[in-house]
Structure formats: C-alpha cells, structure tokens
Amino acid sequence: MSEKSQDNSNGSSAYWKANLKWVGILLSIWFIVSYGCGILFVDQLDKIRLGGFGLGFWFAQQGSIYVFVILIAIYVKVMNRLDKKYSVKKKD
Amino acid sequence: MDVQYWTYLIVGLTFALYIGIAIWAKASTTGEFYIAGKGVPALANGMATAADWMSAASFLGMAGIISFAGYDGSVYLMGWTGGYVLLALLLAPYLRKFGHFTVPDFVGDRYYSKTARVVALFCAIFISFTYVCGQMRGVGIVFSKFLDVSIFWGVIIGMAIVFFYAVLGGMKGITYTQVAQYCVLIFAFMVPAIFISIQLTGNPIPQLGFGDTAVGSEGVYLLDKLDGLSQDLGFAKYTERQGSKLDLFAITLALMVGTAGLPHVIIRFYTVKKVSAARVSAFWALLFIAILYTTAPAVAVFARTNLLETIPEKAYSEVPGWFKKWENADLIAWIDKNKDGKIQYVAGKSFEGKPDYAVTQNDAGDTIPLRGTNDERLLKNKPTEGANELFVDRDIMVLANPEIANLPNWVIALVAAGGLAAALSTAAGLLLVISTSVAHDFVKKTINPGMSDKSELIVARMAAAIAVLIAGYFGLHPPGFVAEVVAFAFGLAAASFFPAIIMGIFSKRMNREGAITGMIVGITFTTAYIIYFQFINKADSNPDHWWFGISPKGIGAVGMLLNFIVSFAVSAVTPKPPQDVVDMIENIRQPEDEDEELEVSDH
Q1: Which domains does chain B have, with CATH numbers?
Q2: What ipTM does this complex have?
Q3: pTM higher than 0.90
Q4: What is the number of structural domains in chain A?
Q5: Is there a domain that residue A91 lies in?
Q6: Is B217 on the interface with A (CB under 8 A)?
Q7: Is A92 inside any structural domain?
Q8: Which of B278, B280, B455, B489 could form a disulfide with B130 if both were Cys (CB 3.0 to 4.6 A apart)?
Q9: How many angstroms from the chain centroid is the CA of residue B440?
Q10: A residues 10-39 near B, CB within 8 Å?
C-alpha cells in the first residue's frame, strides 16, 4: 500500500506541481486586471483614454471580465494537455 | 396590444415551457434528483449554471445599483465574475473528482467528522435561505408591477411553478428548465439594451456603445456627457471613485470568494460526467454570464443618462407615463418642497427613510392614496432640508428602462419574463441545495444511514416542498434591497466554506479541529458584524465607525482571513489527519484517466 502510493506520488507530484504553477500564473493575471487595474491603480489609469472610457474605469467594468473568460479558456486548454501527458493508462 | 396583454402572453408562454420541460425531465432516482444522473452535457451545464447563478439581483438589481453608484458599482461586476475564476481553477475540478453530492459531503469526509458535516450543512442552509429572500422579492416585484396581481398572489404563483419543477424534476428538471430560462433572460436583457444603445449612441453593441459618442451632441462621449449632467445636478462624476480603495478591495474580495463558495453553484459541477467536462462547463458558464455582465454597466449608463435628461425641472403635470406608473407602484416618490410644481432632482436625500405613502378611505371603504395639489401621491415621511425632491428606487432601473426609452410594448413584457426567469432559476437551484442538504447530509448521513434510495427521494421531495413554503414566506415579507441582501449571503459563504474547501484540497496537514473552528469563527464574526451594523446600530453604519473603514458588505473578506488564520493556528497544535484522508487528498490531485467516468461513490 505505502509502496503503491509512493509510486503514484512520483508521477502525480510532477502533475500537481505543473498544475500549481499554471494556477499561480493565471491567478496573478486575475489579480492584476481586477484588483490592480480596476481598483488600486484606477485613478492613474483613468488618465489614459480608450474612446469614451478612462482605462481604469474600462478595466473595472469591461476589461477584467473579458480577461477572466480568457483565463478560464487557457486553463481548460493547459489542463487537458497536462491530463494527457500525465494520465496513467490502465490498459497499457 | 397593450403592455398588460403582451406580459400575460409572454410570461404565460415561458411558464408553459418550464412546466413542459419539468414533465419531460422527471427524476426517478436520488442520483437524478440530486445531480441529474451526471448526464448533462458541458454546454447545457454551462447555460444552466449561468441561469442558476444570475439571480434577480443580477438581472433586476445590479444595473440599477451601478446606475446610482457609477464606478463604485464595479465591485459587483468584478466580484461576481472574478469569483468564477476562483471556482474554475481552485474548486470545481477537485470537487468533481471527489465525486460526492454536496459541499457538506466533501467537508464531512475530508475532515472525517460528523460535526464538520453538520457545521457545513448549517452554513449551506443559512446561506441558501439568505439568498432565497432576494429572489422572492424579485418575483414579488415583477408580478405585482407588471401583471397587476397583488404581491401575495404573485409569490404564490411563483412558488407553485418552482414547486412543480423542483419537487418533481429535482436537479434534472431544474437543469433543463434553467437552460430555457437562460435563453429567456439573456434575450430579455439584450434586446432593450441594443435598442437603447442605438438610440443614444448609434452603436448597436451596448458594450462599445457606452464608450461611444452620444447621438446629437457633436462628438461628445456619452460618459463625458453623463459626468457633466451629474455634476450640474450636484452628483459626483459617474466615472469617478467615491468609496475608499480598501473598502472597494474588501467588497470585491468578499463577493469573489463568496461566489466561489456558494453551495448552489458548486453543486452544478457534480452534474457532468468527467473532471475535464467540469472545467469546460465552468468556461461556458462564465462566457454566458459575461454576456450579461458586460452589458449591465452599459444599461446602467443609458438608464442614468435618460433619467437625468428627462426628469429634472420637469413639471409634474408633464411627466411621462412611466413616472406615474412607478409612483403608483410605490417605487418613485416626489415631495414638492418649493411648491413650484416642478421636479427638482439633485444630490442628497429628499426625505428620511423609505417612502411611506399617505392613504385615506373613500366612501366605499376602499383604501386609496392621498394626493396633493399636483395630483402627486403624498408622503408621511419627514422631508429633509436639502433641495432634492425625488426618490427613485434603484430596483426599477432595469424594469423601467424600456419604458423610459419609449420602446415597444412587447420589449417591456419581455423584460418582465426575463426577470422572472432569473429569479425562478436561482430560487430553484437554492431550494435543491436545501432539500439535498436536509435529505442526504442530515437525514441519510447523520440520522438514518440505512435508509433506502426510495425513501431518501421522498424525504428530499418533502424537504424541497417545505423549503418552497418558507421561501414563500420571505417573498411576502421581503427584507431590504435585492442585491444588498444577496451581497450578505456572499459574505457569509466567503467566511465559511471557501477556506475549508481550499485548505481541504491544497493542504494535507489541515485537520478536523482547524477546519471546524475556522468555519465557526468566520461565520460568527461576519454575521455579528452585519447584524450589528445593519440591524442593531444602523445609525453608526458609516466609514467612521466601521473597522478599518470596511463596510458590512466587505466584511466577509475579513471573516475569510480570520477563518484561515484560526484554522492554521488550531491545526498546528492538534493531531494530523489520518492516512486514509491524506490518500483521498492525494487522489483528487491526480489526473483523471482518459476514459474513466467517475461514479457517485456512495451508491
């Protein structure tokens, strides 16, 4: 039992590490576009104009949401690839 | 055809559709009742999740709140969508891999404790009921204002419909009904938004339109025009920040984490076949949600601009029909302080508290409103010293928007059907969580483990039926603004579930003692803070008295931090979790086998 879980954790710990790395990257972007651009630096960014929008205002009410959708799309792609790479095929 | 007929027609058709789906998708096992037999395709699950989660607050309340709060309203937009990212990345795939029915189920097994299960169960039911209040108020508003039935009968009809498809169909019925409800609500939200965007900016895409130039103002951007209109009347600039950054940060965090921790959203990810499908359905859900969420701020700007252009300095005798209609519906109030017969609308409150209309009795003994010299409804409220004479309830902005913009009657009727779809879909999802929690986590797992599948299904249906009745009570005695009540539910979810689930997945060291004390401390602290400032000492609810200037809406973020800190502190001095639990965590962290379809593990 302990030997088997040892085996598993070798293969799976690489998978888990890759997973954590990607989640870390994606959540950093998540934080920057919402809390960063939308709240903390909104006053500075509002000086830049994007059509009728101040850039900070645009991030808070539009941009952050678009980025969120893209983040999940990337996550789905990356995880599907990682699943393929690390999944243990029982039939082999 | 007038609005009334159109509304009866469209609402009637959509209700017939929901009932038809419920009959078609009747559940016959607990598996189908709780999680639709895990046979829901990712795209459909995404749509159902979107409808489940976009409540009356998103549909009716949010654009109205943003309309009055301007930039500060962004916390709702970022909070409610950003939480989805947390859900998709940190929770959904692992909970799906774990493969049980409910969040209390996960918490109970992961923390090897009936106490943990019961604490989580209590949190789930408490949060769900808080949230249901908001939905019922939405159903009540739409019925009483559009269909000319009393709030009482409005709520009864709404309850009957939900009762029918939630009790009969369970998760399977609810899921396919929600797919239909998503289509109804998104169509109903987009059609008026596109019409009004073309009217005001000439741009048919609302998301771009509110950053475009205003029609008939020679290259002036709509937002600049609105900022100008606002300032002329003494309001703050629409696009400028008012609240403190720390408070906005805390509210956004509480909403985000709360979204991720909401039990009725999490449960949706148990309804798909594979972990990879859970990830894909989280993507679809956010995409479908984003359509409404990027349109709402545009609707807010359009509605605000129209209101500020139409009403100020207009004589009451010349106001458009919608003004009197909503005044008669108790949601607009006007006090002619300076007796000039015109409506002064400037910054500041017009009177203390919510409108309290004066009434009298006519010869036949019916209660009728008392009217003033301009034929306006008189109020019992004490007017303030300020020059503002007008009260507009924020909840009407979406409902009244098509009328304010003079759109055709069928569009107005469509909005009513959309509001009902949003409220009913969320209410049904919540009722299912309540019934599942009671039947599965409480009766089956805690009291009577030997119960058969058949009797569990009966208990689940009975629990759903009782929950519908309790929810109906809240519909008749609604507390506060729709979106605000719901915002508190998010705070509570943030302070209780989220840390317990996150630590359950990402820490092998977190144990029973830590998680339970964390949840109790988090939810107790948050509830106490909200109750103190919202109910006991409302007069002190302002930035000077709040802790660190954090409002009751944002306090869930602090509750969550407390939960994390207490959990880690307690777990450091108590025994490690047993080996089989560590193995379980190891297992949910592993990739899924390609052709593996997880079974519900306790059947």
Answers
A1: 3-307+407-478 (1.20.1730.10)
A2: 0.86
A3: no
A4: 1
A5: no
A6: no
A7: no
A8: B489
A9: 25
A10: 12, 15-16, 19, 23, 26-27, 30, 34-35, 38-39
